[in-house]
Specification:
The complex is a heterotrimer of chains A (430), B (184) and C (310).
Chain A lengths: L2 E10 L4 E10 L2 E6 L6 E4 L4 E4 L1 E6 L12 H10 L2 E6 L10 H14 L3 E4 L15 H7 L3 E3 L8 H13 L3 E4 L4 H4 L4 E2 L2 H6 L3 E2 L1 H18 L3 E3 L5 H12 L4 E5 L1 H5 L3 H5 L15 H13 L4 E2 L8 H4 L16 H10 L6 H15 L15 E11 L18 E11 L2 E5 L2 E2 L3
Parallel strand pairs in A: 1-4, 1-5, 6-7, 7-8, 9-10, 10-13, 11-12, 13-14, 14-15
Antiparallel strand pairs in A: 1-2, 2-3, 5-16, 16-17, 17-18, 18-19
Helix pairs in contact in A: 2-3, 4-7, 7-8, 8-11
Chain B lengths: L5 E4 L1 H18 L6 E6 L3 H16 L5 E4 L30 E9 L3 H13 L4 E9 L11 E5 L6 E6 L1 H4 L3 E6 L6
Chain C lengths: L16 H14 L17 E6 L5 H12 L3 E6 L11 H10 L4 E6 L4 H8 L3 E7 L5 H15 L6 E5 L6 H12 L3 E5 L15 E3 L2 H5 L4 E4 L15 H8 L3 H4 L7 E3 L12 H4 L6 H20 L6
Parallel strand pairs in C: 1-2, 1-3, 3-4, 5-6, 5-8, 6-7, 8-9
The chains are: A alpha/beta (430), B alpha/beta (184), C alpha/beta (310).
Chain lengths: 430, 184, 310
């Protein structure tokens, strides 16, 4: 069945496309772009922006082994609801994705049950223990698109250096969760004035910065590509800026919660554990530095670090609660409401940061609005005002601090491989 | 060493001596059955080859020729200031049951022949070993004697006997020289 | 003709082509001794040789030992576990003690590069380096070159691929220094974590793609994978190593049909090379061992055969 996306503003900066036109999607591909086209099903995109499909390269799908938190079906449902046509999932599962059979399991299950595309990452080290290298070459052939020990840092610098040299042979991006555990041990939120007042042990910004610096230096030393995940501090941002100026092959991502919130929210929401994640929300100066870095390109992409947990894992004392909040279903809304509409970030930049660049970092062909391209398309509505509710969330996990927020700007439709997966923030029944 | 003191043998004399030795070999061993020649490097080799050619001419049968390098068996290595270059020995015929005639150009102290006996015996066990030399100049330091001699030349220790052969030096002659004074 | 004008053999880097030629030619000549019924010549009778091994090795130690014995030298073997070395004796004191006992030559293997140099400075006796850390293993380099020369008639212009952990390999280094002196084209191939820096200035090509190195090669020299490096994060698993860098039949076919397959031993069959090619008709691994004894005899002869020189 063909789909006609009618009358939207086509915007794909990487392909030089910016015009009002119809897109006809047929047989999994963009069949035609023009005026007055016809198709079997019509998606009215008048007044909306039609973009190449968004890809989130930092998502925890919790498969295998932790399906009580999220599974492929619910995770990808959350993704398409949030406007994503593809997600890259993290390997800190049970067991850790560090070998071919586990990679294949995820790939095959996603092919069967995924509502959007799913690309797994493989661990850097076996079991993510930071000791022996994982079989990156074999896993690459089985379908990983990057390596990471996310959830954990690689503690030993020499191990990280060897891992980067090894990954570089296969042109695999090394994504790093930057945290010096000796500096962060025992902390539950940002180390600052708020944590002092709330009586919660703090995680110093330096715990992230030390590893950001280390990784940039190792990247300069080895020539390997390294990606700083979920950047949270202004000094980390400065380090990335310096690293890029030095010619390091470093990239960085920011999450919507880090460019929207600060540690103040822990107090405002009265110790709500939906404000607890790692790295934590930091100060306003940090948040502003992140936003500025997104605008000047120091931060390359937006990624959610969507981290679903079971309610029993969050509904406990702040210090006991697991780190992590969901993010797939609020990312587009927050970006439009907080950055694009106020004119801080342009639409073009948003699309580059949510589609083209994430794809390129993990060696995927970026979705494109060109005839013959695979039909992975995200339609967004800049005008729609909506309220974030737990009931409407497709994810199994409702641990989001944005519940109850009113946002202007929302994903409107998600088309994956030519199939309409979401319309008006509702997952389309298959 | 420039001018020879005396010419001991010219080409014709050398060849005549070799022919006579060949006949003696045949007479002594009642033919050339099981006879093989082994030339001691360096000039013993062309001598052995010339002897083999004459034996074949006289008896009508080919006689095997081997090559022996005795460098590794010398007893005077520790007195040398530098280590001599070694070359391969080549004895491809079997030694048990064979009458081996060692061939060398000059027999002097006998130490070269002693080394040759050791080298040969480490390769195998001939039934008989005989010795043929072109020139015997006396002054033996070991109880060694030749079975076949081209020419006996009494010499003093201050003299040197040099054998030149066409195959190695471009011409045939045997000459006597005085040792230069500094050589001691 | 002069022998080697040096007291010690510590590496191939400092040897000239003329010196290497002399060693290889001498080795070629001495080779027959080890294969004939009476494996003895009296040449080094009365000379004493000590093999001093701070690192375990059976084959190299035994090869030197046999070389010495074939030349009629007296040979004593000292390994770390059974000597005063373990009691904490310094290298310098060990050297002095050996000197005092009248030893003529010491063959030394040590885990640290440069150790034989120290020994050589403190000894009048000759020192032969049997492998010092990641630095050099000259007798291995020489026996490799002898093997290639025997089979290929020469070394110049040949493409020699050295596959494996060349970063940690003294065998690779000695081969590089020796082969480049003769104008061979040397390639290093292996995982990126196991390739050395800086050899490009010798004209050596370095690649992580083993296929690139094997393409059209005349010689394939496969290095042993030290399995304990897996625990140190240099490669993930034997399976992945074999898959991406193991020399198997398919990969060997990229080399010339008459290419030589070499390995310094001992082999991890199925890891750095597959078992079928280790035993196949391109393998000259056993010839290497025979040549090893010959090369070591040549070194001992050339260093000890004459009188007191230098």
């Amino acid at each position: 069945m063909s789909i006609l996306i009618r009358g939207g503003r086509l915007l794909d900066p990487a392909s030089g496309v910016d015009r009002i036109a119809d897109i006809l999607v047929d047989d999994g591909k963009i069949a035609a772009i023009g005026a007055g086209l016809t198709g079997d099903r019509v998606v009215d995109a008048t007044g909306k922006v039609v973009a190449p499909g968004f890809i989130d390269i930092h998502v925890h799908l919790r498969v295998p082994g932790q399906e009580y938190k999220e599974d492929i079906r619910t995770g990808t449902a959350a993704a398409v609801r949030g406007g994503f046509t593809g997600v890259v999932c993290m390997p800190n599962t049970k067991p850790v994705i560090d070998n071919v059979p586990t990679v294949s399991y995820v790939v095959n299950l996603a092919a069967k049950e995924g509502l959007c595309r799913v690309w797994p990452t493989g661990a850097i080290t076996k079991g993510s223990k930071g000791e022996e290298l994982a079989e990156m070459g074999e896993m690459l052939e089985a379908g990983i698109v990057a390596v990471t020990d996310d959830g954990r840092p690689v503690d030993d610098a020499e191990r990280m250096r060897q891992a980067m040299i090894y990954a570089r042979q296969f042109d695999l991006l090394v994504m790093d969760h930057c945290e010096d555990k000796s500096l962060s041990a025992g902390g539950a939120m940002h180390f600052g004035k708020v944590s002092a007042e709330l009586g919660i042990k703090g995680i110093a910004a330096a715990s992230e910065e030390v590893h950001v610096a280390r990784d940039i230096l190792l990247s300069l030393e080895t020539g390997a590509r390294v990606h700083i995940q979920h950047i949270s501090s202004r000094r980390s941002v400065e380090l990335v800026r310096w690293g890029k100026a030095m010619g390091a092959r470093v990239s960085a991502e920011a999450t919507p919660h880090h460019f929207t919130l600060t540690d103040q929210i822990v107090a405002d929401m009265n110790y709500a554990t939906s404000t607890k994640m790692n790295p934590p929300l930091r100060e306003e100066t940090d948040r502003q530095a992140i936003v500025a870095a997104m605008v000047d390109g120091t931060i390359d992409i937006i990624a959610t670090d969507h981290a679903p947990h079971h309610i029993d894992e969050k509904d406990v004392e702040y210090q006991q609660a697991l780190f992590g909040i969901t993010g797939l279903e609020t990312a587009v809304g927050l970006t439009l409401d907080r950055l694009v509409r106020p004119g801080i970030l342009s639409l073009e930049q948003m699309i580059l940061m949510m589609s083209t660049r994430p794809a390129r970092l993990v060696n995927l062909t970026p979705p494109a609005l060109t005839v013959g391209a695979q039909a992975d398309i995200t339609v967004i509505d800049l005008e729609r005002t909506w309220t974030v509710t737990a009931e409407e969330m497709a994810s199994k996990s409702k641990n989001s601090p944005f519940i109850g927020w009113s946002l202007t700007g929302a994903p409107y439709a998600t088309i994956v491989g030519g199939a309409l997966r979401m319309l008006e923030m509702k997952v389309v029944a298959q | 060493m420039t001018e020879p003191k005396a010419l001991l043998m010219d080409s014709a004399q050398m060849n005549r001596a070799l022919s006579r030795i060949a006949h003696e070999i045949i007479e002594r061993n009642k033919g050339t059955e099981n006879v093989a020649l082994v030339g001691i490097r360096r000039r013993g080799v062309p001598l052995a080859q010339r002897l083999a050619a004459r034996l074949q001419e006289f008896e009508g049968k080919k006689v095997p020729v081997g090559i022996l390098d005795i460098t590794l068996y010398r007893d005077d290595l520790t007195e040398l200031s530098s280590v001599p270059v070694i070359h391969k020995s080549e004895v491809t015929f079997k030694l048990p049951g064979t009458i081996v005639i060692l061939v060398d150009d000059v027999l002097y102290t006998g130490r070269t022949v002693r080394a040759a006996l050791d080298a040969l015996l480490d390769i195998g066990r001939p039934s008989v070993i005989q010795l043929a030399v072109l020139v015997d100049r006396g002054h033996r330091e070991l109880p060694i004697r030749a079975d076949y001699v081209g020419k006996n030349v009494p010499t003093s220790k201050r003299e040197v006997v040099e054998v030149h052969m066409t195959e190695v030096d471009g011409e045939d002659y045997v000459a006597l020289f005085d040792l230069p004074d500094e050589a001691h | 003709m002069a022998g080697l004008k040096r007291k010690d053999i510590l590496g191939l880097k400092e040897l000239s082509v003329a010196e290497i030629d002399l060693i290889l030619n001498t080795a070629d000549t001495l080779k027959d001794i080890a294969t004939r019924p009476i494996k003895k010549v009296p040449t080094l009778r009365g000379k004493s040789l000590v093999t001093l091994f701070y690192e375990n090795s059976t084959r190299t130690a035994k090869s030197f030992e046999l070389a010495g014995k074939y030349l009629s030298a007296d040979v004593i073997n000292v390994s770390v576990s059974s000597s005063s070395v373990q009691k904490g004796e310094t290298l310098k004191d060990t050297a002095r003690n050996l000197e005092a006992m009248g030893v003529d030559a010491v063959v030394m293997r040590h885990a640290m590069g440069g150790a034989p140099q120290i020994l050589a400075q403190h000894l009048h006796a000759s020192v032969i380096n049997a492998g010092d850390g990641m630095h050099e293993h000259p007798s291995q380099g020489l026996l490799d070159m002898l093997t290639i020369r025997q089979k290929k008639g020469g070394l110049s212009g040949l493409k020699v691929a050295i596959v494996g952990d060349s970063y940690h390999s003294r065998v690779a280094r000695s081969n590089i220094y020796g082969l480049t002196k003769y104008g061979a084209e040397v390639w290093l191939a292996g995982p990126a974590t196991m390739l050395p820096q800086g050899y490009e200035e010798y004209g050596v090509k370095v690649t992580t793609r083993v296929e690139e190195a094997l393409e059209g090669a005349d010689v394939v020299n496969v290095l042993r994978l030290q399995l304990e490096r897996q625990g140190r994060g240099l490669f993930p698993s034997v399976a992945e190593y074999h898959k991406f860098w193991g020399v198997n039949e398919r990969r060997l076919r990229l080399a010339k049909p008459d290419a030589l397959l070499m390995h310094p031993g001992p082999m991890n069959r199925g890891v750095e090379l597959s078992t079928s090619i280790a035993d196949g008709n391109q393998s000259v691994i056993l010839e290497q061992v025979t040549n090893g004894v010959a090369v070591r005899m040549a070194l001992l002869y050339l260093l000890l055969g004459g009188g007191e020189s230098a």
